[in-house]
Predict the 3D structure of the following.
Amino acid sequence: MSAALKAIPPIEPLAHSLEATVALPKPLIIAFIRKEVHAWRERMLEGESADRETIEADISKKLTAFSRSRLQPVINGTGVLIHTNLGRSPLGKSAASALESIATGYSNLEFNLIDGTRGKRAGYLETALACLVQSEAATAVNNCAAALVLILRHLCSPERNEVIVSRSELVEIGGGFRVPEILETSGAKLVEVGATNKTHLEDYARAITPRTALVLKVHRSNFYIEGFTAEPEMAEIAELCRAQQIPLVEDLGSGAIMDTDQLAPIDHEPTPQETLKNGADLICFSGDKLLGGPQSGIIAGRADLVAGVKKEPFFRAVRCDKLILTVLQECIDEYLRTQAKPTETDIPNIKALALSTEQLQQRAAHWIQSLYSCKAQCRVVESMATTGGGTMPRSQIPSLAIQIQAAEISTNQLAKQLRTGDPAVVGYIQDKQLHLDLRSIFDWQDPLVIQRIKDIL
């Protein structure tokens, strides 16, 4: 062994010394260290030099960062209610409790407790979903993209595979996936109509041929177009489709069940109920955005079309497991219980949207009083929260934030210490000062964040 390689630390002793610093299984720690030691050996054989202390410190730092990448709770002080990077919509207490009950035991997933025979999977959920969105039938799969692919696979055939979409609706959703690519995956042929800013009813009418499988509307939930624009009403397109005996489908994306403009001073987001009433034959939308449930995709509409979608062989590949079904079931039940009084709901996102300024002011006053003795300048400032999650891009909800400027550490250091502590707290930096928006922090989390700030400062 060369003199340089003698600086490479032995794996087992290093693993033993680092085991107390990270809460990871020892086999995982050893595997991680072995990979890093191998990388250091390669670097040193290529001429790089380092002593053992430097190598051990580097591996320790990387192991700590790796351990922090485990899925863990985060307190969201960003003011973005459906924060994609922070897990999108949080679940209500009743849904979380039901999840624990089902996850830690057996369930009647496909068992009829009355007859003692094989039961229908998701029978209750599908009935409740149809009741909520006021459709003939409904079902659920593991995400909205899968829901759209299933619908396209069912309605398209080799003889009729053309799907008409307005150019203004060829959107890109999260992760770089685009509507044209989803159509291609399902075997459909895209037929673009209209222009980016204007699409007329005549554009749809001229595009219809014997090979047309359906007309697809895609709700622009993550961007908006203003200015010299025009598009036909949903009811007008529905009338055209009925006359031509072509299904009309809309991907609503965001999944707003309640009237958003009645919850907060923001725009009205189209609901599934409205879209179906205006003539759509099938709709799909996300379960983990404005609906506030788990990652899932909802399909609703005509009973014959929903039944056909469920018979697709691909349906089994994207169906929901018992955990998603449980949480979604509880979420839908909660909506049905509290439709008349949305402010009494257990669904966190709905509660956050409906928070009044007075409620936020009371909490803010408590924060300032509690942080009075800290070595920092803390004050309440007006802020603008957003729905986020690729929904309602113009939604700006008046809110309040706690602005913190520490006396002895930089703003970046304070933000990092909050992010890397337990619990992790994520805020945002504006005007070189840390801000924690109270609308996205649950009231029961206030004492936790206040104590974390005290511990740091």
